[in-house]
Amino acid sequence: MVRAARRVGLRDEDLLLWHTGGVLSMFEPYLNQRLWPTWRTVAVHQIGMRRAALACAAKVSPKEAVDMVAAGTFSADGLRMLAALNANTF
How far is the first Cα of the chain from the last one, in angstroms, to the nearest whole number? Predict the structure, then answer.
């Protein structure tokens, strides 16, 4: 999984965020082919990989994440808290 993530440019410190958001899996195929292309495009062209990972983990849609960054309301701390809640939902 880590090698597959590194091949597409994911940083080790963001792997848990991508996993929480459902983009990265412990099982093959390691990258969700439905979610990854959209998040990658948003990350590369609009908001950056770290912000995209946070938004994904917090279950914010790519459009909402772009709008939050554009409006200046993107809160890394708030999204980390949402991501933590999502990670603990069974």
Answer: 22
Q: Exposed, middle or buried, 3 (CB in 10 Å: 0-12/13-18/19+)?
A: exposed
24 DSSP β-pair partners = 31
- Statement: residue 68 has pLDDT above 70: yes
- DSSP code of residue 89: -
Residue 22: how many other CB atoms lie within 10 Å: 16
| Number of separate helices (H) and strands (E) present in the chain | 6, 0
pLDDT in tens, 2-40: 999 999 999 999 999 999 999 999 999 999 999 999 999
Neighbours of 1 (CB within 10 A): 14
